[in-house]
Amino acid sequence: GAVVSQHPSRVICKSGTSVKIECRSLDFQATTMFWYRQFPKQSLMLMATSNEGSKATYEQGVEKDKFLINHASLTLSTLTVTSAHPEDSSFYICSATGLNEQYFGPGTRLTVT
Amino acid sequence: DAKTTQPPSMDCAEGRAANLPCNHSTISGNEYVYWYRQIHSQGPQYIIHGLKNNETNEMASLIITEDRKSSTLILPHATLRDTAVYYCIVRVASKGGADGLTFGKGTHLIIQP
Known about the structure:
The complex is a heterodimer of chains A (113) and B (113). Chain A is mainly β and 113 residues long. Chain A has no helices and eleven strands.
């Protein structure tokens, strides 16, 4: 099946700093990528839809100025959490569309201290 | 997308068949039933999907009732590695991967040794 990677897998940062998470489709081109967030003991929640070469579409309640998404190529999307705070600590998961299905990355565990 | 209802948790003995039910009584004619699973601290994994016919692949079988208001995912010989949260999602497949997925709470399947 199609492979999606994320980097880093785990990151700890101080409050007020910014963190960038990369999502790559390794063996296919993805015109659309998605970013999800998952808090402990909860389900995945869609944050935004990222289309190559255009602005991301954010779900209601997700601040676009705080969660910057860039989808510069068909194999790479990045999520930057700006001015991170402890409440941004979460499991961030991306997915990429390929062959009419969504393939998920392994996730990035963000801890803001 | 139609709403789904799943039991919050289930146990199954190792080596036995695990049958996971899902109710989707408001499913529309053009909506497919998808199953994903999420092993702890990993990204979701696609399992199987179907419209109205029963489907089987190397991972599982999907049985959809004739009225399409419910379905059952069957893992024929469960192993400890099948312990995960299983999500039943109903969506219009013609959109391919163009839309983000809406995850419910899923069923936490625990395989007992």
